[in-house]
């Protein structure tokens, strides 16, 4: 490469002479490159050329010049390139890429509005379009195509803007754009949620073309699709894993316009609820209490508001929700069916920002502010109801006079001390208060505080210490101005410590290992008279305490690009702690109060019962091709805590009890097999998964069992084996103007309660459906983007009616009519289906404005389907009357306004 002299351009007069005295040259050449032509000129004259070889290609030219000035020859040679030239008085020909060297600070031939570009040693220009001329236009057109670097497909809706001049445009459906930029230097930037931003310093001297390739950033997706990385999904050896980003669900029509992560999860195969308005979630045929809900490592015992109609998880403050329903990692324990791991977003450490929404039922606001610039930040989110008009829409006259309100508050502080140490502290509080068609006022509350410290020992070793405390309590105040007024309350508190390490031994082995301990404190309930005139006796059930310890280790083994295994082992130990009393019942007789042999009393912290268990987790993945994987897993788990409910659906007033000498821990074993396929790279994702689960010691109850304030609760509890199995199918369209998913699942959930005693036997000791057994479930969710600002969305849901026990006959005794009933859960209530629609309106796409807005106009249950919530029967005045209750039996229109600032 010929020596290149660094150029400094000055606007003061320089020692350059007029180029009118060029010498005349005669040149004749064939098939020479420009460098070879310049060499020939040097050989025939006293001129020396200075340039960079990388500016030229190997294209050859043939020319013939007779007695032509050098300036004319160079103008002709460089006319189709972006190169300029300048001839000095020292007979040096200096070539410049795009730039025009001016002779003085003032040039009459150049428009005064244009600004010459100075390029010095420390200045970087990414692209020079054309070459500088003395009579430029005021604006030039830059055009091109923007594609995804991942699949080379055009990207629609990318905003391209000049940061300092407020000029912008967007790409069309083919990824094409065109923008008019001023003459001279410009700084342009691309912007689209879900893709990395590109920034270029561009010098415009002519119309030109610039194409972009953008990298996808899945954590910033702003579509409705529940989407993960293609490579991660295909290569991950954990079956039954679902990731939901909080930003992904904003266009899904929801009840009363409230964005809700848990209701979005219910549209996916294998995740269902017992009914509309039912508190709790059933995963792959499991009970409500078999799901572990974690908020930044702290346990959330009741993740819902308003009797299950709303999630207690604030979508504005949530980053993502991981749902493990197949092979649960060994770091999680204590539940049989699933883990809902909720992660709160980190607060911004750079600038103040926020997000808010106003809807017909709730208001929500989140703010983030730096505490120490680039090191720490604070996030605060508050959500609350301000209207009870929704109760007026319910199909029940008594409910119209009811009252419901709730709120939740979350705060998170994150601090980065250095590259090796990070601290995160989260506090959460939620409160619900309702009075439903009665004189009882019900309150329930969640409290969570968690601390997480992450330390990087080196490139291979990372440690995490999590400390948390969680509590859940409820109380019932009955005030009817009579002698039966009372106050009843219940509380459970859990303190947890977990130390986890990640060790990247090699590309073949990655280890996760650690230990965990949980201390349970349960106040099973107490009732006391509200005043001295009340005849209600005081009852105080003795407290329960338990300690659950665990050691865990797993190895992610990558044998090859095609085959990998995840091998895990978790040893758990449960210790029942005093002070407590345990009742011993006579063997070979049913458990009832008349068969108590003795009662053993234990002092504070004395161990009265110990349970141990080895849980094993095996997951495997084999990639048949780059876009097709087969996965299989086996998962054994133990559960030492139980939620007691003999209602057909879970209630916020259900109680949690610990395992003891009479109530055994639940055990579960799951086998799963799945296939994942991508079509057209990532356009379509198709998955098919099947599972089979076996249970031991599932809990059910005797007919008419009394579970609240029962000191001998074991006399009402029945335990037996269970099983569930199913098939899950999901197809998702991930990209394009039309996107969404279709999910279908077939599942069965059965339990067997057999005993040598008739009072402890149900349905003759045969398997029968659980209360939440709903074989067929179909959900269709789609979003169609009409323009960059307008889109329509819809959600269709169908479910088989849940089981119910019907009266099959009646008889009369003492002039009173009584019923005889079928086997437990032998019949079903009518099937459930619902259609929701929504219109989504984005605010304008101006870059510089105070807030960016988003409107959602939706109709929940647009068909007005009267879906039954429950069917029950009562005997009044000697007559049997049947009832069917529903929650939303009419269309519910809502308008919600969201804005970010």
Pick out its properties.
mainly beta; five-stranded mixed beta sheet; disordered N terminus; 901 residues; Maltoporin, Chain A; 22-stranded antiparallel barrel
The CATH architecture designation is Beta Barrel
Return Rg in Å: 36 Å
Mean pLDDT: 83
Report the structural category: mainly beta
How is the CATH topology named?
Maltoporin, Chain A
Unreliable spans are 1-21, 104-123, 218-229
**Which CATH class?**
Mainly Beta
First-residue to last-residue Cα separation: 53 Å
Strand percentage lies at: over 45%
Number of helices: 4
Sheet with the most strands? Answer: 22 strands, antiparallel, barrel
Overall helicity: under 10%
Please provide the count of β strands.
57
What is the total domain count?
1
- CATH superfamily (homologous) name: TonB-dependent receptor, beta-barrel domain
Shape: elongated
Nutshell version of this structure?
The protein is mainly β.
Describe the protein in words.
By secondary structure, the chain is mostly beta strands. The protein has a single domain (230-900), classed as Beta Barrel (Maltoporin, Chain A), CATH 2.40.170. 3% of the residues lie in helices and 53% in strands. It contains four helices and 57 strands. It has a 22-stranded antiparallel barrel. A five-stranded mixed sheet has the order 6-12-11-8-9, with no helix packed on it. The chain has a five-stranded mixed sheet with strand order 15-22-23-18-19. The longest helix has 11 residues, at 34-44. The two termini are 53 Å apart. The model is unreliable at 1-21, 104-123 and 218-229 (pLDDT under 50).
């Amino acid at each position: 490469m010929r020596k290149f002299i660094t150029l400094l351009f000055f606007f003061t007069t320089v020692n350059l002479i007029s180029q009118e005295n060029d010498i005349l040259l005669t040149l004749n050449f064939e098939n020479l490159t420009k460098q070879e032509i310049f060499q020939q000129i040097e050989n025939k004259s006293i001129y020396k050329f200075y340039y960079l070889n990388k500016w030229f290609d190997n294209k050859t030219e043939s020319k013939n010049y007779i007695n032509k000035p050098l300036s004319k020859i160079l103008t002709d040679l460089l006319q189709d390139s972006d190169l300029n030239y300048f001839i000095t008085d020292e007979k040096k020909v200096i070539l410049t890429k795009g730039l025009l060297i001016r002779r003085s600070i003032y040039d009459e031939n150049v428009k005064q509005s244009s600004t010459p570009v100075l390029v010095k040693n420390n200045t970087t220009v990414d692209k020079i379009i054309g070459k500088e001329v003395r009579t430029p236009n005021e604006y030039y057109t830059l055009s091109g195509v923007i594609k995804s670097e991942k699949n080379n497909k055009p990207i629609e809706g990318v905003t391209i803007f000049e940061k300092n001049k407020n000029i912008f445009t967007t790409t069309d459906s083919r990824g094409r754009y065109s923008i008019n930029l001023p003459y001279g230097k410009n700084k342009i930037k691309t912007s689209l949620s879900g893709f990395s931003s590109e920034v270029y310093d561009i010098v415009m001297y002519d119309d030109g073309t610039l194409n972009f390739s953008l990298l996808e950033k899945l954590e910033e997706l702003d579509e409705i699709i529940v989407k993960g990385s293609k490579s991660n999904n295909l290569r991950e050896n954990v079956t039954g894993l679902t990731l939901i980003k909080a930003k992904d669900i904003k266009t899904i029509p929801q009840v009363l316009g409230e964005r809700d992560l848990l209701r979005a999860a219910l549209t996916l195969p294998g995740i269902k609820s017992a009914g509309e308005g039912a508190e709790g979630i059933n995963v792959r045929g499991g009970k409500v209490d078999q799901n572990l809900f974690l908020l930044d490592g702290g346990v959330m015992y009741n993740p819902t508001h308003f009797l299950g109609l709303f999630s207690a998880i604030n979508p504005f403050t949530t980053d993502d929700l991981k749902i493990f329903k197949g092979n649960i990692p060994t770091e999680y324990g204590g539940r049989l069916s699933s883990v809902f791991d909720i992660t709160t977003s980190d607060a911004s450490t750079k600038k103040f920002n926020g997000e808010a929404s106003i809807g017909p039922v709730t208001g929500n606001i989140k703010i983030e502010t730096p505490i120490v610039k680039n090191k720490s930040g604070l996030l605060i989110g508050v959500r609350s109801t301000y209207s009870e008009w929704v109760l007026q829409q319910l199909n029940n006259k008594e409910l119209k006079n009811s009252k419901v309100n709730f709120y939740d508050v979350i705060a998170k502080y994150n601090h980065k001390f250095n590259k090796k140490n990070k601290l995160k502290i989260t506090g959460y509080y939620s409160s619900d208060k309702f009075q439903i068609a009665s004189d009882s006022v019900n309150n329930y509350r969640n409290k969570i505080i968690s601390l997480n410290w992450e330390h990087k020992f080196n490139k291979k070793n990372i440690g995490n210490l999590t400390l948390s405390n969680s509590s859940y309590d409820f109380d019932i105040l009955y005030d009817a101005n009579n002698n039966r007024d009372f106050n009843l309350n219940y509380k459970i508190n859990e303190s947890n410590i977990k130390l986890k390490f990640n060790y990247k031994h090699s590309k073949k082995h990655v280890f996760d290992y650690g230990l965990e301990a949980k201390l349970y404190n349960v106040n099973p309930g107490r009732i006391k008279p509200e005043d001295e005139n009340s005849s209600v006796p005081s009852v105080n059930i003795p407290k329960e305490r338990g300690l659950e310890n665990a050691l865990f280790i797993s190895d992610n083994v990558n044998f090859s690009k095609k085959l990998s295994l995840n091998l895990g082992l978790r040893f758990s130990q449960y210790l029942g702690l005093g002070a407590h009393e345990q009742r011993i019942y006579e063997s070979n007789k049913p458990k009832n109060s008349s068969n108590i042999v003795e009662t053993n009393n234990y002092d504070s912290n004395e161990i009265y019962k110990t349970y141990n268990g080895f849980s094993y987790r095996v997951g495997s993945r084999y990639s048949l091709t780059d876009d097709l994987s087969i996965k299989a897993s086996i998962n054994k788990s133990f559960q030492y805590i139980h939620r007691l409910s003999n209602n057909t659906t879970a209630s916020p007033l259900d109680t949690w009890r610990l395992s003891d000498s009479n109530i055994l821990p639940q055990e579960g074993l799951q086998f799963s097999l799945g296939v994942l396929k991508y079509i057209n790279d990532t356009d379509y994702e198709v998955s098919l998964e099947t599972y089979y689960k076996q249970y031991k010691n599932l809990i059910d109850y005797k007919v008419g069992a009394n579970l609240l304030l029962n000191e001998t609760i074991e006399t009402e509890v029945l335990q037996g084996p269970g099983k569930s199995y199913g098939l899950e199918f999901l197809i998702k369209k991930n990209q394009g103007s039309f996107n969404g998913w279709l999910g279908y699942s077939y599942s069965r959930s059965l339990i067997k309660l057999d005993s040598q005693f008739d009072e402890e036997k149900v349905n003759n000791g045969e398997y029968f459906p659980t209360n939440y057994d709903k074989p067929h479930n179909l959900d269709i969710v789609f979003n169609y983007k009409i323009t960059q600002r307008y889109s329509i969305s819809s959600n269709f849901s169908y479910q088989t009616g849940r089981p119910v026990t019907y009266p099959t006959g009646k008889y009369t005794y003492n002039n009173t009519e009584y019923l005889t009933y079928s086997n437990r859960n032998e019949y079903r209530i009518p099937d459930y289906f619902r259609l929701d629609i929504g219109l989504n309106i984005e605010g304008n796409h101006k870059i510089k404005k105070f807030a960016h807005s988003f409107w959602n106009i939706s109709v929940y249950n647009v068909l007005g389907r009267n879906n039954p919530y429950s069917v029950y029967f009562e005997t009044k005045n000697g007559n049997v009357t049947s009832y069917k209750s529903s929650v939303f039996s009419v269309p519910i229109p809502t308008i919600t306004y969201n804005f970010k600032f």
